[in-house]
Structures are given as structure tokens and as C-alpha cells.
């Protein structure tokens, strides 16, 4: 059981288009496919990997986004616009057991059409939100079910 | 493709030891012994073979602020404790031209002994982005004045603490 790598980070921005354009133009990222979360998102890729997720931020974020992801802050600039940082790993069941043993509260989510199973929780010292992504197949094999799936959100 | 992959993030922790313990115990990351002496306390943590979390402390430290090119106040919370997000990149000249073309201010830093060159810039929401060019030995003098601002270097002399100095 281990986390293998940093996977992506999510920025919440008051200007999705301008932020997308900046990362595309300045850093050479490419806009690519993303699941249907029933709230506006942009996924930006380096090669074949989505490394940066953008969603709306500030005061007027959608209810669907709040239901799925919550909202960590209404900051509109600086690193407070980072909603979470994600890692990818294997060993979902062991991680859930570990979090339960250590008393770390967490939420479970499933992105049906991406085959991803997600755990969200806070670094309790700094209040930074961490996402752990696992293959859905692991959850299915272990009979683990999420609290909410992306497809349950109303369009 | 010049910017190639996501590499790490740096978190300026309220409590460095507790934060290190969280990443080790809860996330199972491994402490790396490869962190150089930056002149300020911190840790590098690995997932698999990848050093993907850098930690520093919120305890006041002038060298840290010089090195990170910004002041960190005590009491930051949530993702406001993240100092920067780092990527690996290739072809520094190409990247510089692209950054200049879009009139984005950048800082850079050369570590010739480590064969590392770095560019720092801010995204539209003021998030700091670090680009790491591994294996690149670049004379910082050749980069000065071309749309890029000054950078900082670390120097060490025998028996002395690491100090930060302007590179150009």
C-alpha cells in the first residue's frame, strides 16, 4: 500500500477562462477531457496527464460544486485559491482502515465515468485539504461505497 | 513540450514536526535524506520514488523569506500555507521566450553545482509556480535584463551558516 505520486491540484478562480488561457499560453498546458461534475470545470494536461483542475471560486460558486467538493475558502488570490492537492495510490481499503484507526474524518466520492474513487480529508495541523485517488476497481472489489457520486448531482 | 510534469508543492507549516508526522503517519510518505541545507528548517517527503512534498516552518526566518521570494507570516491557514506548486520542465530558452511573449514577470535561480535551473512566476490568481530544469547549467548573467527580475542564490562557506544573496 502506498501513495505513488502527486496527481493534480485544484484552483478555484473567479475567472475560469483567463486562468485557463494563462496556463495554456504561458506554461503550454493543453485543455482536455473531464468528467461531467454538473458544475463548470476545466482540466489542463501536460502530455497525457491532467495536472491542474480549475473550478469557479470566490463568493458565487455553484451548489453542486459545494455538495461535491465543499469550498475551503473564498480567497480570490494567492495560494488560498488552491482547494486541494491530490495524490494517486493503491491500497484503498488499508488507507480507509488507517484513517479510521487514527481518527481522521474523511469523505468518500466516486467519479463514475473516470473510474476513480476519492478520499478527501484535512491535514489537521494546517487545514489543507488532501485528496487521495484510487482506481474504482479497488473499491468495487472491496465492496466499498461512496457517500456521493458525481452522476448523482443534478444537471 | 517544455513544461513536462507536476513535481511537488511546498507547504509552510504552522508546526513543522506535527506536519511531518501527519505526512509520514497518515499518508505513509517517506522522509527523504536528500534535502540540501537551505539555511532554514524543513523536510522533503517522498511518495514512491518521487519527492512530492516540501515542508518549511512558519517560524520567522529571513533566509526562508529570501529564498521563497516572499514573506510568510505566522498564522496562515488552509491552502494559504502552500507557498508554490512546482513542475519539471525542459528547454529553458523556449520557456523564457514564451513567458516574455505573454509579458509575465519571472524570477530565476541557477544552481550550477546541482545542475539545476529554476524559473518562478505568478499565475493570474497570484499562485507561485516554480519550473525546474534538471541538468541545466546556465550562466545567470546571460539571463539578466531580458524581462526577468533578479534572483537569489545560496552560498555556504566553511563553518558558516548558509546565507542568501542576490544573484544578479
Instruction: Provide the low-confidence segments of chain A as ranges.
Output: none
CATH class of chain B: Alpha Beta
The proportion of residues in beta strands of chain A is 35-45%
Q: What coarse outline of chain A follows from CA principal-axis ratios? A: globular
Average pLDDT taken over every residue of chain B: 84
Q: Determine the CATH superfamily of chain A.
A: 2,3-Dihydroxybiphenyl 1,2-Dioxygenase, domain 1
Helicity level of chain B: 10-25%
What is the helix content of chain A? 10-25%
Shape of chain B: globular
Which value, in Å, is the CA radius of gyration of chain A?
Answer: 15 Å
Entry keywords:
heterodimer, A: 155 residues, alpha/beta, 2,3-Dihydroxybiphenyl 1,2-Dioxygenase, domain 1, nine-stranded mixed beta sheet, 24% helix, B: 168 residues, alpha+beta, eight-stranded mixed beta sheet, two-stranded antiparallel ribbon, 3 helices, 10 strands, 38% strand
Description of the structure:
The complex is a heterodimer of chains A (155) and B (168). With 155 residues, chain A is α/β, with parallel strands linked by helices. The model of chain A has no long low-confidence stretch (mean pLDDT 86). Chain A has four helices and nine strands; from the N terminus they run βαβββαβαβββαβ. Chain A starts with a strand and ends in a 6-residue tail after the last strand. Chain A is 24% helix and 40% strand. In chain B, strands 2-3-4-1-5-8-7-6 form an eight-stranded mixed sheet, covered by helices on one side. A two-stranded antiparallel ribbon of chain B has the order 9-10. The longest helix of chain B is centred in the N-terminal third of the chain and has 10 residues, at 16-25. Chain B is of the alpha+beta class and 168 residues long. Chain B has a single domain (3-166), classed as Roll (2,3-Dihydroxybiphenyl 1,2-Dioxygenase, domain 1), CATH 3.10.180. In chain B, a hairpin with a 7-residue loop joins β9 (152-155) and β10 (163-166). Chain B is globular, with a radius of gyration of 16 Å. Chain B starts with a strand and ends with a strand. The chains are: A alpha/beta (155), B alpha+beta (168).
Amino acid at each position: 500500500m502506498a501513495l505513488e505520486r502527486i496527481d493534480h491540484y485544484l484552483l478555484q478562480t473567479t475567472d475560469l477562462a483567463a486562468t485557463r488561457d494563462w496556463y495554456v499560453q504561458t506554461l503550454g498546458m493543453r485543455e482536455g477531457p473531464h468528467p461531467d461534475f454538473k458544475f463548470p470545470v476545466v482540466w489542463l494536461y501536460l502530455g497525457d496527464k491532467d495536472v491542474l483542475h480549475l473550478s469557479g471560486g470566490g463568493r458565487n460558486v455553484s451548489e453542486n460544486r459545494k455538495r461535491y467538493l465543499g469550498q475551503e475558502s473564498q480567497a480570490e488570490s494567492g495560494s488560498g485559491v488552491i482547494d486541494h492537492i491530490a495524490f494517486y495510490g493503491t491500497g484503498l481499503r488499508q488507507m480507509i482502515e488507517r484513517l479510521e484507526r487514527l481518527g481522521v474524518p474523511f469523505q468518500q466520492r466516486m467519479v463514475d465515468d473516470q473510474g476513480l474513487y476519492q478520499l478527501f480529508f484535512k491535514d489537521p495541523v494546517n487545514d489543507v485539504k488532501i485528496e487521495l485517488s484510487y482506481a474504482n476497481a479497488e473499491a468495487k472489489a472491496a465492496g466499498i461505497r461512496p457517500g456521493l457520486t458525481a452522476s448523482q448531482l443534478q444537471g | 513540450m517544455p513544461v513536462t510534469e507536476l513535481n511537488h508543492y511546498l507547504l509552510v507549516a504552522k508546526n513543522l514536526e506535527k506536519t511531518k508526522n501527519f505526512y509520514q503517519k497518515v499518508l505513509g510518505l517517506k522522509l527523504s535524506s536528500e534535502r540540501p541545507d537551505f539555511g532554514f528548517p524543513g523536510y522533503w517527503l517522498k511518495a514512491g520514488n518521487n519527492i512530492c512534498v516540501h515542508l518549511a516552518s512558519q517560524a520567522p526566518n529571513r533566509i526562508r523569506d529570501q529564498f521563497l521570494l516572499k514573506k510568510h507570516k505566522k498564522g496562515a491557514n488552509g491552502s494559504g500555507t502552500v507557498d508554490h506548486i512546482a513542475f519539471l520542465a525542459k528547454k529553458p530558452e523556449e520557456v523564457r521566450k514564451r513567458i516574455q511573449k505573454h509579458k509575465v514577470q519571472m524570477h530565476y535561480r541557477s544552481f550550477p553545482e546541482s545542475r539545476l535551473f529554476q524559473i518562478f512566476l505568478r499565475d493570474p490568481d497570484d499562485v507561485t509556480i516554480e519550473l525546474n530544469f534538471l541538468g541545466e547549467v546556465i550562466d545567470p548573467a546571460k539571463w539578466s535584463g531580458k524581462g526577468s527580475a533578479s534572483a537569489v542564490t545560496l552560498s555556504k562557506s566553511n563553518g558558516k551558516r548558509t546565507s542568501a544573496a542576490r544573484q544578479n
